[in-house]
Amino acid sequence: MAKAPQPRHITLGGREAVALTREEYDQLIASRRQIGGQSARVRVLAQQAKRTEQLLHDLEALIASQGEDCTAPAHASSTPCLHSPSTRTDAAGSCLRCELAALLRRHRDPAS
């Protein structure tokens, strides 16, 4: 790891200033570029996280607006899914809407 620059404090025209060698100045500029690039990447990731969170929220709201959760076996009930047979996706009788709702609940609650 490069040694941290040790600036020399000087007074120039009655104002305090810091004097750096050309090498120290180049290191400072390179560090600023790296930090700027990392900041831009973090900003993009934060925007993607917000969009993903909004998508999950919208999916959850859409699923919830379609009615109450069914009582499919996947939800620890012995009664078959109450939704139409055309929405069922597997032999166990669970429907896609119920599976999506369960998946969203699992990922929304980090404790589970």
Keywords for this entry:
mainly alpha; 112 residues; rod-shaped
Structure report:
The structure is a single chain. This protein is mainly alpha-helical. It is built from two helices and two strands; from the N terminus they run ββαα. The chain has a two-stranded antiparallel ribbon with strand order 1-2. The radius of gyration is 29 Å and the shape is rod-shaped.
**Helix and strand element order:** EEHH
| End-to-end CA span | 42 Å
- The outline comes out as rod-shaped
Q: Helix/strand/pairing class, anyone?
A: mainly alpha
Structure described in brief:
The protein has helices spanning 22-65, 96-108; strands at 8-12, 15-19.
SSE inventory with pairings:
Layout: E1 8-12, E2 15-19, H1 22-65, H2 96-108
Antiparallel strand pairs: 1-2
Helix pairs in contact: 1-2
